[in-house]
Design goal:
The structure is a single chain. The protein is an alpha/beta fold and 330 residues long. Helix content is 42%, strand content 18%. It contains ten helices and 14 strands.
């Protein structure tokens, strides 16, 4: 299948490109490389372009003629979205509309959309399922709700179908250490903890210890990035075979607290790095755990890496390799 992947040079996008490429799909990655890297694209070709550039999008669609689009090109940091909401609405909403316009002009009607558990805000119950109200508590989550609304309305109005995958906390790396998280200023807990263990940061901050959880720190559902990539492939196959629009959660159905993650990170690395407890961050819900029953039932998805120690080990192996490469290139 011919598939255009926006943001395919980024962390999640590159792992999905890897999985699609291993299955023999014909891939075109469309990425501005603002947070992604050309070396992370293991399959397919790269077009360096902006989603705001309709001319560049038209050329990519006209030349490649994709059958489906997977859309990963979004700004994703919760705290940053609170500080810079306009940037998030411009990229996550306005630029996504440009992509949808291009798809319409070129007759491409199949989309896999990257959404997020942040659309739920602070859910009334756990685990969260797809029927729960959408009450985002930060601009990042709000931007994704806006786009889910747009997609729903477009699908209702014409010949367009999509699957929105609501990610919970994605972590880990390619087990062969070919690709992994490579952000210049990582904010994800696991990556931040490992960079602290590796000496890149003097300490790891725990943002808030007074949440209504067992140890007072936030609880999250961590899913290995390769399991998430498999979910995308299965969702795409489901969409192409059935033509049905769906929304599905992607997670394991159980969570770990910040303190539990830190403990396992110290075990994996063998380093007792410095941890500091500090104030809460804006926009952080106390707990987010996925009910992924729908994804499993409709697509047959079964996680292969539901083991936090394995997730952190793959991330650590990647972190050591990537940091050594950066030092060697200086």
């Amino acid at each position: 299948m011919k598939i255009l992947v926006t943001g395919g040079a980024g962390y999640i996008g590159s792992h999905v490109v890897k999985a699609l490429g291993e299955q023999g799909h014909d891939l075109l990655v469309y990425d501005n490389l603002s947070t992604g890297h050309d070396w992370a694209i293991l399959y397919g070709k790269l077009v360096k372009g902006e989603l705001a550039d309709s001319g560049c999008l038209d050329e990519a669609f006209s030349t490649f003629q994709p059958e489906a689009v997977l859309h990963f090109a979004a700004s994703i940091q919760v705290e940053e979205s609170v500080r810079e909401p306009l940037r998030y609405y411009r990229n996550n909403v306005s630029n996504s509309l440009n992509l949808l316009d291009a798809m319409a002009r070129h007759g491409v009607r199949n989309l896999i959309y990257s959404s997020t558990a942040a659309v739920y805000g602070i859910p009334d119950r756990m685990p969260a399922d797809e029927s729960m109200p959408l009450n985002p508590i930060n601009p990042y989550g709000a931007s994704k709700v806006m786009m889910e609304t747009v997609l729903r309305d477009i699908a209702s109005a014409g010949d367009f179908r999509y699957i929105a995958l609501r990610y919970f906390n994605v972590a880990g790396a390619d087990a062969q250490t070919r690709i992994g998280q490579a952000y210049t200023d990582a904010t994800h807990l696991i990556t931040r903890a490992l960079k602290t263990a590796n000496g890149e940061f003097p300490k790891l901050s725990i943002f808030g210890t007074g949440y209504p959880t067992a140890d007072g720190t936030c609880i999250r559902d961590y899913i290995h990035v390769d399991d998430l990539a498999d979910a995308h492939i299965r969702a795409l196959n489901y969409l192409m075979e059935t033509g049905k629009t769906e929304i599905m959660n992607c997670g394991y159905g159980h969570g770990f607290s910040v303190k539990e993650v830190v403990s396992i990170a110290k075990k994996v690395t063998g380093i007792d790095f410095l941890v500091e407890e500090t104030d809460r961050r804006a926009g952080d819900p106390p707990e987010l755990v996925a009910d992924s029953t729908k994804l499993r039932r409709l697509t047959g998805w079964q996680p292969r890496h539901d083991d936090l120690e394995f997730i952190i080990q793959t991330a650590w192996d990647w972190e050591l390799k990537y940091s050594s490469q950066l030092k060697a290139n200086k």
